[in-house]
Structure to design on (195 residues):
């Protein structure tokens, strides 16, 4: 699956992205660490080309069974981050959890907002989900503003929810329902772009 609009493109993670992913993650360690899960390994050990290959295979397995929608985010043709809908549950719930990261060099340009909007529309459309949830640390103002601009609503505080950056961190639960964006999330994003 390939999703695109303007200079932003989302596609499956590629084997050939291993070295570029490693370079981006290493360059963005300080930018990403406050929002990343805790681990017993050093950042450099978790972000080798081999670690990318393991992550990519696991993501592909989860995608094949319908539990995940992992996308590489490209901006102007180069790898710039990832957007994933994970922990997808079907049946009466039809829900998934949204996660994303972006290279600090392209932050603040609307790249992540556009990418998330494209993924939301895909999840609500062809994938058939009804609800997307994004859990964000209260301190992450950029990420909170991003989902709020796209129509996500804050639903509550999840105390000590995830082990992030060396400790159990509170998160704010945000959710977007398919009916919250009847014209699509991309259309909502486009309507907010200054002309």
């Amino acid at each position: 699956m390939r999703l695109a609009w303007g200079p932003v493109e989302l596609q499956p993670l590629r084997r050939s992205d291993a070295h570029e992913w490693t370079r981006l993650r290493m360059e963005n360690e300080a930018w990403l660490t406050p929002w990343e899960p805790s681990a017993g390994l050093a950042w450099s050990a978790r972000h080798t080309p081999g670690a990318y290959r393991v992550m990519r295979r696991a993501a592909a397995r989860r995608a094949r069974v319908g539990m995940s929608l992992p996308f590489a985010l490209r901006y102007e043709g180069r790898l710039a981050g990832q957007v994933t809908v994970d922990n997808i549950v079907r049946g009466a719930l039809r829900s998934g959890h949204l996660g994303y990261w972006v290279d600090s060099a392209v932050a603040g340009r609307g790249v992540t907002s556009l990418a998330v909007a494209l993924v939301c529309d895909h999840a609500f459309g062809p994938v058939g989900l009804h609800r997307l949830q994004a859990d964000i640390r209260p301190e992450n103002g950029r990420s909170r503003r991003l989902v709020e601009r796209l129509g996500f609503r804050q639903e509550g505080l999840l105390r000590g929810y995830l082990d992030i950056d060396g400790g159990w961190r509170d998160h704010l639960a945000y959710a977007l329902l398919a009916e919250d964006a009847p014209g699509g999330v991309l259309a909502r994003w486009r309507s907010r772009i200054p002309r």
